[in-house]
Amino acid sequence: MGTDTEQADNRNGTGWPPHLRLRKHADYQRVYAAAARKQHSREMSFFFARRDRIPTRRLHPDEASPGADGPRIGLTVPKALGKAHDRNRIKRRMRAAVALHAGELGGLAVDVILHPRRTVLDLDWDKLQREVRDVFRTVRRGYDAPVAPAGNRPRSRHKPAKAAANSATPAANLRPPNQAMPAVKASV
Fold first, then answer.
1. Looking at per-residue confidence, does 180 or 133 come out higher?
2. Angle at the Cα of 54 (from 48 to 57), degrees rounded to 5?
3. In Å, how far are 32, 89, 114, 115, 174 from 78, measured between CA atoms?
4. Architecture of the domain made up of 10-56+67-145
5. What is the pTM of this model?
6. What percent of the chain is modeled with pLDDT above 70?
């Protein structure tokens, strides 16, 4: 099945603590909306957003936990990655790697969502750990980076739309909209 390291989960108390998890669909949606863009690493994609920049929701008293100020990590493994037993194995491996390297995020108030690729299923355990550690280090660097004001953010890589199509047309070629086109004589 898997190595002892991969089997680290909450059954033996060494896994990913509940206060480090993103649980609610609404929390995932807030991170997607607040994240600057989707980030990529070799074996996974990820989103992250500082919690002080995410619109908040009021927590139910049962949700309040002592670690609520620290990082929260969510995991998504869609059906496209394989059958249920494959997806479950991907999740177990990811949870174990996250539990080992969540300390990289320290006490940051950040929400992170990881989207592993199917290659995580057969990836060497050391490489998977290194990948998760590198993602968390990238999140830490991004957390500390200043955010540009909304007006100064870089535009998308697509060209901006032109202001008006007729703005470059010379005034001599313009005609009133109710006037018919002049007849053109055909040369014989």
1. 133
2. 125
3. 16, 13, 12, 9, 56
4. 2-Layer Sandwich (3.30)
5. 0.65
6. 60
